[in-house]
Amino acid sequence: xxxxxxxxxxxxxLHDIAKVTFYKRDELTTDLICCEVLVGEEMYTFHEELVxxxxxxxxxxLPDFSxxxxxxxxxxxxxxxxxxxxxxx
Length: 89
Prior knowledge:
single chain; four-stranded antiparallel β-sheet
């Protein structure tokens, strides 16, 4: 996927989203922040280097969305980290 555009966002209707998980991948010299969005049986995976990454603002409108997801995964550097920011379960 090259960008997060209106077409992608149309598939990520807030009322259809079941779960949002953030995590980071060790890329040897940097960490790559990633996001998985579960909609029905389909998982969408995005990362911070994609055009449109600010779609996170769209996700923050979910009820009880955890806004501290970044702090939860960012430290320590180069260590695995995962945070479920939203879940309907």
